[in-house]
Amino acid sequence: MGDVLAFIEQRDGTVRGVAREVVSTAASAASGLGGAVHGVTVGAGAVGLEGLGAASIKALDGLEGYSPERWAAAIAQVVRDGGYAAVFFGATAQGKDLAPRVAALLDVPMASDVTAMSVEGGALVFTRPVYSGKAFAQIRIDASPAVASLRPNVFPVNEMPAAGAVETVAAAVDPSTPASTVVRFEAAAGELDVAEASIVVSGGRGMKDPEHWNLLEGLRDATGNDVAARGASRAVVDAGWRPHGEQVGQTGKTVSPKLYFAVGISGAIQHLAGMRSAGTIVAVNKDPDAPIFQVADYGIVGDLFEVLPALTEAVRELRAEG
Fold first, then answer.
1. Rounded mean pLDDT of the chain?
2. Rounded to two decimals, what is the model's pTM?
3. Which of 18, 119, 258, 319 satisfies CB 3.0 to 4.6 Å to 32 for a cystine?
4. CATH number for the domain including 225?
5. What is the tens place of the pLDDT at every residue in 203-255?
6. Strands 123-130 and 135-141, how do they pair?
């Protein structure tokens, strides 16, 4: 059998959106391998577990607080016991921490930050970007299980029936094992995560100065700041204008909002790797040959300091009418 295990990530007792992508992709892999998709998570009672579509989900109990060593050991044991052909994680901060630990415990290689997956000749083939997104490598993993982390907001979510029940099981790990433990998580108060937003307003070096960011915030507020987030290019973050949590791109976050504004961003391949899957892309740049226009659905060539106020006002009027 070619059963595939999907790690279901939670946050504050709620299943994260990336978990649906992981389960859905794992289901596709399992179908190609002639098996079924199963899930594993840490902690029972999370909202949204039953509707993910996995054949069954094991909720590991007895792991209080995030401890990467203990979590990885418990997940690795689930993999051994189930004889899974593959294990998928989301390439989130937590997934990037756990996946290589699990692979090391299982003594198998892994594919990280995967952007595409296929089954060829009974083996999984993963595609991942290399050289900052300038090229893509195809990796065939013949070892079993194949371990991979999937880049968020890249893989489609296919609707699947909620077939299996959630079973709470004791984590198979010695609680006295020396391990690090995360004391607490701190999130920016009141700020929507750029990776979770349905609208992203991003700025680049064309903004010229961090003091001009209020123009972008005006556009974000006009679109609805309850669903919109601020984003930034790598150059802006490297210059210290914006925090790293807002960076969109190969070395930042991958976003897939319904609407993406790229303002003063040239469109280097590193940035495009993080936002090209957006539903609608609107670009504002004074350079008509800027690469960003090659992926934009709508492009405005002009001085952003003139375009942004007019665009913001137009958005406000449209929302008032609708």
1. 89
2. 0.80
3. 119
4. 3.40.50.1220
5. 999 999 999 999 999 999 999 867 899 999 999 999 999 999 899 998 888 88
6. antiparallel
